[in-house]
């Protein structure tokens, strides 16, 4: 039974095939089946016989009785018969098995014989074929050579390459057909460089089949724009063909990668890991902006598959095209899913394009971005930036040549030279190598000690000062590399060898031979580097060289290095005269003697072998991304030893140029990053070499920074809105990106279900986003796709819609709403908009329900419990950072209709830099709402809405849009304008905002508008009066400012008066003073005086009431002054006799008369009837002349040295001072003249320059004063200003220079003698004064431009709880300052409660809505830019409603606290 068991793999399958079994197995299976059939038949016969016997027995039993012996005999016979039958069946089975076995053997034998016969026939057939083939080859062998000769020919191109223009990230295939014999070898080139597939695995695929050669470029990017050439070559010739490939950048679903598009090709990796890895960049570093001295880490997060701990792909970092290695400046890390490059101290040397390459056997994955490094703040204002890329060349025993790259001086004065410093390794002692600045970027440093190592640095110099030092160079040793060439290895027995100098093989040589091949290896204006070959033989002793020079034609030789011997076969010769030619020769020497001189060099003249490069050619700027521009330019005509280019940019209209790169770039294309979206720029380029920078190129055309123009993206959200059985109404959503140009319309295609071909619905574009498709078959299924079109062309079509069945809608409920859009997405809320259903059902629509859920949630939640009649709804209390989807259901009297299509997912999170609508009033008093959108493109449009319905009422509103700024003006604002206003900007990432105009805000704006439309002229002083000495009364007032068109009028007692002899009127509009003078003021003039002023729209008036006692006081004073004036017409004293003490400690008696007497005249006593008005001085009432008087301007002083002496004069005696009163007085020294004295000249430095000043005790205008510089008289000018006062004379030297050094003399003439004071302003005195002037100038500039709060903030604010507090001020700074608010010295978290606005970079306000007691505290505003800033504290006190207002001092203007420029951060 085991032979016929069914295997397990056949039990499950009923259709198994048994043909694989051998012959014996098949026979046993057949035999088993036959036995089973025989056994079955015998069993059936036995059963039938047994049943018949039983029936017979039954019959017998029923017929009669049988004995037991007979019954036993009958059963024995039956058993014997059955046994006999079994034996007979077995024998027949054995016989049948033997016969079957014999027949099987005979059959197998016959089959085997047949197979042998067939194999013999096939073998004979193959032998015959081989024989025939060999015979044919023998016959053709003689003709093959001549046949090949006839076939050979040069390559010939049948189909040439064709140029292609493709979009970025698309693949492009270049094909051409060539024939020739032997088969040509084809090579592909890109811009003349051979294309290597191994260099960029996976980038290129080259195939050749049947003479057709193809080059496929996978995922083309902007750098693949080039000319591609194919060259076919065989032994008989060469042909080529070329084509251009232009890769255009498009604005797809996301902003293009920040690929700088620089023509940099990286070399293939030298080591490729054996394993195959799949690398995917998860997070990438972007364009980076840093400053010198800062730290930064460039990092990428990677997903490497498979993840093996011991085997990883190779990570390589490149700057431009140079492979980076770890150093003291850079640290690298790769592992744990990250690759990073860290900089501990940035320098401009680190600026460049950084590329991270992950290399494995599966290919290369890379990411690149540019890092910009700006100059650090200079040590001196206006000083240049530091040089960079310091390199050391041609190092030997005596000198090292140091080279560097110059800094970009766009914002500073040009560099006039460089100082080179050296430092011995292991010390901190820096030594300046050159006394005068060198003008080219290369210098040979001499004076080194043999065998020691040095590092170098360079500093740039301009007119303002010296820059920071550059990054130090790598250490270099003062050794001669030629010494290594003189070494020679000598092999000894076995594997031994010794190293000796070649000098040891020269024999016994004492005096060396002369040097050979003396020539100038480098020539510049300041030095010449001579090089020569060592003498042969040279001898074993140490060798020295002496250099001699001779002016051509002089015949005399002068030793250059008489003091110092040269040990290396190179030397830099300095101090060569300009314009003269020299010849040189070299002598070698050792301790045994001096060699003969070498051969004389050709005449050499010290001059610059390279010139300043010419300016680059045409500059082209093209769009790249929202914040970058691609700048390309033509190389200069004379590009001699160029180091690179500097690119500058300027905002149109500002005339302020800023550097774009701070390290020269070596290619003529550059991507300028960090620009402001929507701003307009111009660019220029200058070339740089070791001599200096070229002139600036011509400026580029103006370009606006925004994404490039492309076709729009595909529409989406195709929805069925209605169907009547023969037509369908469709709606769809606008494309997410319009491609930078307005969308002109849409094309719709349709097809029936299970059909392959699409059919056009409209031949011309439709402008609306809803369309009814006619001519459809009822009951059929249709699908649709839609494509948008703009100026760039037709975009990609949308994905096919779902299948819509054309059957009439008859349900009573409304159809779905459509066009669900979002706006004003903030951290916890958003606004959902939609359009009403096209199919309204059995009745009008009464409202809408809005449902929402998280994107991956299952159940829907309803935002509004009651249906809203609006077609917008603000969803609040959402979770920040979560993603939601929404749908809308319309409602009518029959019930709730089918829901709209599910909206696209929306992330509830405010975009960085979100702007809000602001309300204001312009200069003309018009009320407006304003909104700015820097992200807008050419295709963007502002849409203003009220209650989220687009405004169409031109009678009430006016919209003005300029650039990225839009304003909504109210023509006649009233309470009907209250409501919610919103604005959205198309073709952006959902930029929108809203503003709720409530009654309080409208009243504030109207009040402000009225103030502007009906302005008031501010007055410095109200109407006042003044009484002159003649009794005249002057009425006057002063306005802040009056234009030339201003007018005025005087009104007295409601009656206007005009200009006349009685009322003389005058208006000085420059000072704003308006006056009226009345010569005689009488009792009739009592009343009210008013002045009315009109200046354009502005007006004001001021009144003065002179009634009763006030008028009487004015009248009495005017009458007194008039009488006093009449009294003074005769002789009188202006000042009565009194005494004082002079600086010389003399007691003077002084009186003053209005008329001066002649000098030296005796003053007599006035006599009656004396018309000459003479005067006389009396002592103790004794008459007689007392002394002589010195007069000046009507003053008669009388010197007295004794006292006390009573002097009665007219109004009583005057007592002289006592000696005790005179004791504190001391005589003063340094008299300049008899009545005046002066101090030595002193130096005072100001931000304007250097001031020389002389302090004097007495000075008048009659004295003559002169200033001299180097004995030359100085005239007052803009450069040197002369001035003074009664106490001091000064000379101001503005913006001093070296020419202003020297001796200065101050001379004064008192009428008799000249008196002088001198000062030598040179040397250290000038240097110290000039340095102090520079510091004061820089400090004044910083003080002028630092961040500051101009005004507007009180020191204390008291407000009631529940009110809205608004703190507003005006800030200033250049550049615009950064503004930060703090509460109790902590940052304020902005929210709906706290909001901060900054308008036009100068108006700053902080608003606290619904003030509570928790808002009490100290609020601070920090205003700061790079020059410094200030901080102002405001104390806010909140009291509850009904409480008594706290008693506090009246608020004063808050006092600022200065913030120095060096302070880090803005924390208070």
Number of helices: 8
Distance between the termini: 101 Å
- The coarse overall form would be flat
Mean pLDDT rating: 80
Number of DSSP-assigned strands: 97
Poorly predicted runs of 5 or more residues? 1-22, 57-66, 251-260, 1156-1175, 1179-1196, 1199-1236, 1463-1468
Helix content: 10-25%
What do you see in this structure?
By secondary structure, this protein is mainly beta. Strands 89, 91, 92, 95, 96 and 97 form a six-stranded mixed β-sheet that branches. A hairpin with a 5-residue loop joins strand 19 (388-393) and strand 20. The longest helix is centred in the first third of the chain and has 84 residues, at 68-151.
Helix-strand blueprint:
Elements: H1 8-11, H2 23-63, H3 68-151, E1 153-159, E2 164-167, E3 172-181, E4 185-190, E5 193-194, E6 204-209, E7 212-217, E8 226-234, E9 237-248, E10 278-283, E11 288-291, E12 296-305, E13 314-319, E14 322-323, E15 330-335, E16 338-343, E17 352-360, E18 363-374, E19 388-393, E20 399-405, E21 417-424, E22 430-432, E23 442-446, E24 453-461, E25 476-477, H4 482-485, E26 487-491, E27 497-501, E28 516-523, E29 528-533, E30 544-551, E31 558-559, E32 570-573, E33 581-590, E34 593-594, E35 604-605, E36 619-625, E37 628-633, E38 642-651, E39 657-659, E40 669-672, E41 680-689, E42 703-704, E43 716-723, E44 728-733, E45 745-752, E46 759-760, E47 770-773, E48 781-790, E49 793-794, E50 804-805, E51 818-823, E52 830-835, E53 847-854, E54 861-862, E55 872-875, E56 883-892, E57 895-896, E58 906-907, E59 918-921, E60 927-932, E61 942-946, E62 949-950, E63 957-962, E64 965-970, E65 979-985, E66 992-997, H5 999-1013, E67 1019-1027, E68 1033-1039, E69 1047-1052, E70 1055-1057, E71 1064-1068, E72 1073-1078, E73 1087-1095, E74 1098-1106, H6 1109-1127, ...
Parallel strand pairs: 2-9, 11-18, 89-96
Antiparallel strand pairs: 1-3, 3-7, 4-5, 4-8, 6-7, 8-9, 10-12, 12-16, 13-14, 13-17, 15-16, 17-18, 19-20, 20-23, 21-22, 21-24, 24-25, 26-27, 28-29, 29-32, 30-31, 30-33, 33-34, 33-35, 36-37, 37-40, 38-39, 38-41, 41-42, 43-44, 44-47, 45-46, 45-48, 48-49, 48-50, 51-52, 52-55, 53-54, 53-56, 56-57, ...
Helix pairs in contact: 2-3
């Amino acid at each position: 039974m085991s032979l016929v068991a069914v295997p397990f793999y056949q039990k499950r399958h009923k259709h198994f095939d048994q043909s694989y079994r051998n012959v014996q197995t098949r026979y046993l299976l057949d035999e088993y089946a036959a036995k089973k059939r025989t056994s079955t038949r015998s069993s059936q016969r036995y059963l039938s016989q047994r049943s018949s016997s039983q029936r017979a027995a039954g019959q017998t039993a029923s017929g009669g009785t049988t004995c037991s012996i007979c019954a036993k005999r009958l059963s024995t016979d039956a058993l014997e018969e059955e046994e006999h039958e079994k034996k007979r069946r077995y024998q027949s089975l054995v016989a049948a098995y033997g016969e079957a076995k014999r027949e099987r053997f005979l059959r197998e034998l016959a089959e085997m014989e047949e197979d042998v016969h067939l194999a013999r026939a096939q073998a004979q057939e193959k032998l015959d074929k081989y024989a025939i083939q060999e015979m044919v080859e023998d016959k053709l062998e003689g003709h093959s050579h001549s046949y090949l000769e006839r076939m050979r020919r040069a390559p010939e191109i049948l189909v040439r390459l064709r140029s292609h223009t493709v979009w970025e990230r698309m693949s492009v295939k270049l094909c051409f057909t060539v024939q020739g014999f032997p088969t040509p070898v084809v090579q592909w080139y890109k811009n003349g460089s051979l294309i290597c597939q191994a260099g960029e695995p996976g980038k290129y695929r080259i195939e050749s089949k049947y003479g057709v050669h193809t080059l496929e470029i996978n995922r083309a990017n902007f750098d693949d724009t080039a000319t591609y050439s194919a060259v076919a070559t065989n032994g008989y010739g060469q042909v080529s063909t070329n084509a251009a490939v232009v890769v255009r950048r498009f604005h797809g679903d996301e902003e293009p990668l920040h690929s700088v598009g620089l023509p940099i090709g990286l070399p293939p990796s030298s080591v490729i890991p054996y394993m195959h890895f799949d690398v995917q960049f998860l997070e990438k570093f972007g364009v980076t902006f840093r400053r010198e001295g800062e730290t930064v880490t460039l990092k990428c997060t990677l997903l490497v598959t498979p993840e093996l701990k011991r085997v990883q792909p190779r990570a390589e970092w490149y700057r431009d095209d140079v492979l980076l290695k770890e150093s003291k400046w850079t640290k690298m890390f790769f592992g744990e899913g990250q690759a990073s490059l860290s900089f501990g101290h940035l320098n401009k040397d680190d600026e460049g394009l950084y590329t991270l390459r992950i290399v494995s056997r599966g290919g290369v994955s890379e990411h690149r971005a540019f890092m910009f490094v700006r100059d650090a703040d200079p040590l001196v204002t206006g000083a240049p930036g530091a040089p960079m890329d310091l390199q050391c060349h041609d190092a030997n025993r005596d000198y090292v040549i140091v080279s560097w790259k110059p800094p970009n001086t766009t914002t500073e004065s040009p560099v006039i030279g460089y100082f080179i410093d050296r430092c011995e390794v292991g010390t901190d002692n820096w030594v300046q190598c050159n006394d005068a600045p060198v003008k080219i970027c290369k210098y040979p440093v001499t004076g080194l000690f043999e065998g020691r190592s040095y590092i170098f640095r360079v500093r740039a110099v301009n007119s303002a000062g010296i820059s920071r030092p550059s990054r130090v160079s790598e250490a270099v040793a003062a050794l001669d590399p030629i010494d290594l060439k003189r070494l020679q290895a000598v092999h000894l027995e076995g594997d031994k060898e010794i190293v000796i100098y070649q000098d040891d093989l020269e024999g016994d040589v004492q005096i060396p031979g002369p040097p050979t091949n003396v020539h100038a290896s480098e020539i510049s204006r300041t030095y010449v580097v001579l090089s020569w070959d060592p003498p042969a033989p040279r001898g074993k002793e140490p060798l020295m060289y002496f250099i001699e020079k001779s002016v051509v034609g002089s015949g005399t030789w002068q030793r250059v290095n008489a003091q110092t011997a040269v040990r290396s076969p190179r030397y830099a010769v300095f101090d060569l005269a300009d314009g003269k030619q020299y010849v040189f020769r070299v002598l070698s020497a050792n301790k045994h003697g001096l060699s003969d001189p070498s051969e004389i060099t050709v005449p050499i003249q010290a001059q610059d072998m390279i010139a300043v490069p010419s300016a680059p050619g045409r500059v082209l700027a093209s769009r790249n991304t929202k914040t970058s521009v691609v700048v390309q330019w033509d190389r200069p005509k004379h590009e001699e030893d160029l180091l690179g280019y500097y690119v500058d940019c300027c905002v149109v209209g500002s005339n302020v140029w800023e550097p774009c790169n701070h390290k020269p770039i070596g290619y003529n294309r550059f991507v300028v990053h960090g620009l402001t979206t929507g701003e307009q720029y111009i660019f220029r380029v200058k070339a740089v070499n070791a001599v200096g920078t070229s002139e600036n190129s011509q400026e580029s055309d103006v370009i606006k920074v925004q994404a490039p123009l492309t076709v729009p993206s595909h529409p989406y959200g195709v929805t069925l809105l209605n169907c009547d059985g023969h037509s369908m109404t469709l709606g769809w959503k606008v494309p997410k990106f319009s491609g930078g140009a307005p969308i002109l319309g849409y094309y719709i295609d349709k097809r029936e279900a299970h059909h392959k071909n699409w059919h056009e619905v409209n031949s011309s574009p439709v402008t609306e986003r809803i369309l009814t498709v006619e001519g459809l078959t009822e009951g059929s299924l249709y699908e649709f796709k839609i494509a948008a079109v703009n100026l760039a062309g037709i975009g990609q079509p949308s994905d096919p819609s779902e299948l819509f069945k054309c059957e009439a809608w008859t349900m009573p409920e409304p159809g779905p709403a459509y066009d669900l859009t979002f706006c004003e997405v903030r951290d916890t809320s958003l606004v959902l908009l939609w359009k009403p259903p096209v199919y309204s059902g059995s009745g009008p629509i009464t409202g809408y329900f809005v449902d929402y859920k998280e994107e991956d949630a299952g159940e829907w939640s309803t935002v509004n419990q009651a249906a809203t009649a609006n077609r917008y709804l603000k969803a609040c209390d959402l979770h920040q950072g979560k993603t939601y989807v929404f749908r809308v259901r319309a409602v009518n009297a029959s019930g709730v209709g089918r829901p709209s299509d599910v909206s696209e997912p929306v992330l509830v999170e405010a975009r960085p830099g979100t702007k809000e609508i602001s309300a204001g009033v312009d200069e003309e008093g018009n009320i407006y709402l304003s909104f700015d959108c820097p992200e807008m493109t050419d295709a963007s449009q502002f849409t203003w809405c009220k209650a989220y319905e687009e405004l169409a009422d031109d009678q009430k509103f006016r919209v003005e849009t300029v650039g990225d700024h839009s304003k909504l003006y109210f023509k006649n604002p009233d309470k009907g304008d209250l409501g919610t206003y919103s604005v959205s900007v198309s073709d952006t990432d959902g930029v929108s905002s809203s503003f709720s105009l409530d009654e309080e805000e409208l009243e504030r704006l109207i009040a402000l508008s009225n103030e502007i439309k009906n302005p008031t002229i501010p007055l410095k002083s109200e109407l006042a009066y003044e009484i002159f000495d003649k009794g005249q009364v002057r009425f006057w007032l002063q306005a802040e400012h009056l234009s030339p068109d201003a007018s005025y009028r005087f009104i007295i007692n409601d009656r206007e008066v005009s200009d006349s002899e009685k009322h003389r009127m005058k208006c000085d509009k420059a000072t704003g003073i308006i006056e009226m003078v009345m010569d005689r003021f009488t009792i009739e003039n009592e009343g009210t005086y008013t002045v009315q002023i009109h200046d354009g729209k502005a007006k004001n008036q001021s009144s003065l009431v002179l009634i009763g006692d006030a008028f009487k006081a004015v009248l009495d004073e005017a009458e007194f002054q008039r009488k006093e004036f009449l009294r003074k017409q005769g002789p009188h004293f202006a000042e009565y006799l009194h005494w004082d003490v002079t600086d010389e400690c003399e007691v003077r008696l002084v009186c003053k008369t209005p008329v001066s007497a002649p000098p030296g005249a005796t003053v007599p006593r006035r006599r009656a009837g004396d018309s000459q008005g003479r005067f006389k001085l009396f002592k103790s009432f004794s008459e007689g002349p007392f002394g002589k008087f010195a007069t000046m301007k009507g003053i008669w002083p009388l010197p007295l040295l004794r006292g006390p002496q009573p002097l009665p004069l007219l109004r009583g005696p005057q007592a002289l001072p006592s000696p005790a009163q005179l004791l504190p007085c001391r005589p003063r020294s340094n008299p300049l003249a008899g009545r005046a004295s002066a101090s030595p000249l002193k130096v005072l430095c100001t931000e304007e320059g250097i001031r020389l000043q002389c302090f004097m005790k007495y000075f008048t205008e009659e004295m003559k004063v002169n200033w001299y510089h180097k004995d030359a008289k100085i005239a007052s000018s803009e450069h040197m200003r002369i001035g003074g006062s009664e106490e001091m004379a000064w000379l101001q030297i503005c913006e001093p220079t070296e020419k202003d050094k020297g001796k200065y003399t101050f001379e004064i003439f008192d009428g008799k003698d000249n008196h002088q004071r001198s000062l030598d302003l040179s040397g250290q005195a000038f240097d110290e004064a000039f340095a102090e002037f520079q510091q004061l100038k820089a400090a004044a500039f910083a003080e002028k431009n630092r961040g500051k709060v101009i005004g507007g903030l009180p020191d204390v604010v008291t407000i009631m709880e529940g009110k809205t507090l608004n703190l507003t001020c005006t800030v200033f700074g250049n550049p615009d300052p950064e503004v930060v608010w703090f509460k109790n010295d902590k940052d304020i978290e902005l929210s709906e409660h706290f909001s901060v606005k900054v308008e036009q970079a100068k108006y700053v306000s902080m608003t606290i809505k619904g003030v509570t007691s928790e808002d009490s505290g100290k609020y601070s505003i920090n205003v700061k830019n790079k020059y410094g800033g200030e901080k102002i504290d405001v104390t806010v006190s909140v009291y509850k409603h009904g409480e008594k207002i706290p008693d506090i001092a009246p608020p004063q203007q808050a006092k600022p606290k200065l913030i120095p420029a060096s302070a880090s951060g803005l924390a208070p």
